[in-house]
Amino acid sequence: MSEQVPFTETDERVALRRAVAKLAGGYGREYFTRQARSGGKTTELWLEIAKHGYLGVNIPEEYGGGGGGIGDIAAVCEELAAQGCPLLMMVVSPAICGTVIARFGTEEQKQRWLPGIADGTQTMAFAITEPDAGTNSHNITTTARRETGSGEPGWVLNGRKIYISGVDEAAHVLVVARTEDARTGRLKPCLFVVPTDAAGFEYSPIPMEIVSPEQQFSVFIDDVRLPADALVGESDKADAGLVQLFAGLNPERIMAASFSTGLARYALDRAVAYVKEREVFGAPIGSHQGLAHPLAQSKIEIELARLMTQKAAALVDAGDDAAAGEAANMAKYAAAEAACDAVDRAVQAHGGNGITQEYGVAGLLVAARAGRIAPVSREMILNFVGMHSLGLPKSY
Ligand SMILES: Cc1cc2nc3c(=O)[nH]c(=O)nc-3n(C[C@H](O)[C@H](O)[C@H](O)COP(=O)(O)OP(=O)(O)OC[C@H]3O[C@@H](n4cnc5c(N)ncnc54)[C@H](O)[C@@H]3O)c2cc1C
């Protein structure tokens, strides 16, 4: 193996990217949009990624995964998107839920939930957002009450969540709730694994404008009874739930960034191929700087975002969560901006064809735009950088 040059990926990572790109290329954008427009799912693709060990690449080996890091699962997510198959549930199931359970679950919980996340048969959704709390997750009101009656001890969960991705494809949802601290009586966050078929757990799809087989849902949690061990790890103690939540945030941002850079690469590839072929004034339109320069700008912006994403992933994988926080936020911001611009430029480069279903470029607009809103909005990242990187006063 050649010696690794700083700022390049390992041979193993490069090989992983190549293998995923090949697999996803066999499905491609046409498959993805066909499934989306017909109300179908991407289950075959999901299970095939899993079968090759790519879905669980970051899950510890002893629980059925590949023993890799966030950088590996982020590479898988990016390569899928770069082939026109951006899978949002990769952000949620292996990266957020997988990380939180692998780091904080009890031994029994890891054995119960991680193998199914890795092999794709027990996908786990993640629910924090609430209609009345929105970005301000300190205001969530979903509550877990301890059940101490004559029966088995457990929890009773009540609340409402919104925009939760993939609930219909998930076996469980990792729900962020609040519970009363036994000592201080104060409400603190706790994470619960809730089966999607639990009595009192209902969900309904939110019609979205995104061209994707993956959907978002309103979730209604009414007196859902859970066993005592539905609570992840030791969240019962001190601020454990908060620590767990924070451990999921950096992976979430890194994955969202990879989703965006992959989408941006796909759009740019499409645009470049088109402007090389299409002739209007007797030469390929790509020979005009009015088209070539914006595409070159996108190439630069995408590479910069990818580099920051890889840095953030390397920091997470090295265990430096604090430094990773800044890098992950910056990467997610840069990647979302790069994707919005790349898709917009790709539409423009295609002229009228850019907004036809046949070419499918405009169909990327909303997915790219969602990257500026979820999982954390660009404004909240700017707030973070203003406060933590620049030391400016908190503005809200
Ligand atoms: C496609 C998609 C998938 C999603 N999947 C999931 C999921 O699986 N699980 C989950 O829990 N959630 C999910 N979400 C929810 C997502 O995380 C939220 O939409 C996001 O956090 C923003 O919250 P909100 O929509 O309530 O916006 P709001 O909080 O209402 O914010 C509206 C606007 O105000 C701005 N704003 C608010 N406060 C401030 C401030 N202090 N300073 C400056 N600007 C501010 C925001 O940046 C935003 O632009 C998903 C959302 C989308 C669009």
Summarize the structure.
The protein has helices spanning 11-25, 28-37, 43-51, 70-82, 88-104, 107-119, 240-277, 289-317, 321-349, 365-370, 378-389; strands at residues 124-127, 143-147, 154-165, 172-180, 187-195, 201-206, 216-227. By secondary structure, it is α/β, with parallel strands linked by helices. It starts with 10 loop residues before the first helix and ends in a 7-residue tail after the last helix.
Description:
- There is one protein chain.
- The protein has about 400 residues and is of the alpha/beta class.
- Helix content is about 50%, strand content about 15%.
- It has helices at about 10-25, 30-35, 45-50, 70-80, 90-105, 105-120, 240-275, 290-315, 320-350, 365-370, 380-390; strands spanning about 125, 145, 155-165, 170-180, 185-195, 200-205, 215-225.
- Strands 1, 2, 3, 4, 5, 6 and 7 form a seven-stranded mixed β-sheet that branches.
- A hairpin with a 6-residue loop joins strand 2 and strand 3 (about 155-165).
- Helix 8 (about 290-315) runs antiparallel to helix 9 (about 320-350) and helix 9 (about 320-350) packs across helix 11 (about 380-390).
- It is globular, with a radius of gyration of 21 Å.
- The structure holds flavin-adenine dinucleotide (FAD).
- Flavin-adenine dinucleotide binds near residues 126, 128, 134, 216 and 375.
